[in-house]
Amino acid sequence: MRNIYLIKFGGNALDGKGGMRQLAHEVADLVREGYSIVLVHGGGPEISAEMERLGMKPMKVAGVRITDEAGLEVAEKVLKKINTDLVDCLLDAGAVAVGMPGYFCTECERKKPYKAVENGKELTVDPGLVGEVVSVDEQTIFDLLDQNIIPVVYPIGAEAVGDKVQHLNVNADTMAAGIAAGVHCKEMIAITDVPGILENVHDPSSKIDRVTFKEIDQLLADGTISGGMVPKVEACRKAVLAGAEAVRMVNGRDPESIVKDVIMGAPKGTLIVKE
Ligand SMILES: Nc1ncnc2c1ncn2[C@@H]1O[C@H](COP(=O)(O)OP(=O)(O)OP(=O)(O)O)[C@@H](O)[C@H]1O
Ligand SMILES: [Mg+2]
After folding, report:
1. Residue with CA nearest ligand 1 atom 21
2. 170: helix, strand or coil
3. CB 123 within 8 A of CB 64
4. Angle at Cα 55 formed by Cα 50 and Cα 57, nearest 5°?
5. Closest ligand 1 atom to the C-alpha of 46?
6. What pLDDT sits at residue 121?
7. Which CATH code for domain 4-273?
8. What is the pLDDT of residues 54-85, one digit of tens each?
């Protein structure tokens, strides 16, 4: 049984290129110490910025990006660029890393129209070309880890439609949790741009240290958890249910240590537990 640590970070989580370099150094050190690490990243703000630059209108409902053909093309381009930058940083830090889209190691299917609650109102949402993970080719990941290679995944999935392949935009937390469950990871750490789940999204000191599934339901129902935090808590629940020993959200802006001390057991961020 491998002890795999799945680390996910989002578009705004790190402090620019310096933050990415710091994370890459920490991850490279951990791999040298014998840890097996899989990285999954998002790129939400960068995708939105590029869409706006091109005159397109980014649209999200309950944290999930509504995606058409043109939006998917932008997402793929932007995510590939972030992926290349991250792999370069890892190589510079002395690690060996391989970048790949989610469809190299997962099978996805298009997310069907679903009901979501936003601002206290229930809506039916058709997210378009958005995917969910249905299965993971864990051997692809294990083969890389066995050679001390870090898989670095960007969240574009694919499904077969007749004899064609349709790429799908997958929320990065959803992709991370799908892979975390598929490889039976020991821990999942979601690095984001807030200290954890906040009682008041505008007050970083209102962080909740530990949250149960039941409390998450309450926080979703009363609107405390909204936007990108919705797919993130669902991703964390999925990882817990898949048997991960610890699932945490942490702030990526910590200059001392982004993931190293958390992996060593420091009680940072928000810990998500079943009960
Ligand atoms: N109760 C809450 N506590 C903390 N953050 C919350 C809460 N409710 C909503 N949020 C929002 O969730 C955001 C984090 O999710 P978001 O999807 O924006 O980032 P990410 O998942 O880290 O990055 P990416 O989507 O690029 O992968 C926070 O910046 C905050 O605005
Ligand atoms: Mg997000």
Report:
1. 10
2. coil
3. no
4. 80
5. 26
6. 78
7. 3.40.1160.10
8. 999 999 988 889 999 999 999 999 999 999 99
Give the per-residue pLDDT at 119. Answer: 72
Pocket of ligand 1 contains residue 62 by CB under 6 Å: no
pLDDT lower than 50: segments of the chain: none
Q: Helices marked H in the chain — which ranges?
A: 16-32, 44-53, 69-92, 138-146, 172-182, 213-221, 229-241, 260-263
* Residues 212, 274 contacting (CB under 8 angstroms): yes
- What is the Å distance from ligand 1's center to 152 Cα? 21
Domain spans in the chain, listed from the N-terminal domain onward? 4-273
Report the candidate in 70, 100, 72, 74 with the shortest Cα–Cα distance to residue 87.
100
Q: Is 23 in the pocket of ligand 1 (CB under 6 A)?
A: no
Predicted local distance difference test score (pLDDT) of residue 61: 86
pTM here?
0.96
CB 184 within 8 A of CB 6: no
- d(CA 210, ligand 2 centre) in Å: 20
Tell how far the Cα of 161 is from the centroid of ligand 2, in angstroms: 27
Indicate which residue's Cα is closest to atom 14 of ligand 1: 228
> Please, is 106 exposed, middle or buried when counting C-beta atoms within 10 Å of its C-beta (0-12, 13-18, 19+)?
buried
For the record, the structure tokens of 124 come out as 């039916």
Among protein residues, the one whose CA lies closest to atom 16 of ligand 1: 228
Answer yes or no: is the C-beta of 227 below 6 A from any ligand 1 atom: yes
Place of tokens 């439609």: 161
Residue of 60, 200, 229 to test ligand 1 pocket, by largest number of atoms within 8 Å of CB: 229
Q: How many CB atoms lie within 10 A of CB 237?
A: 17
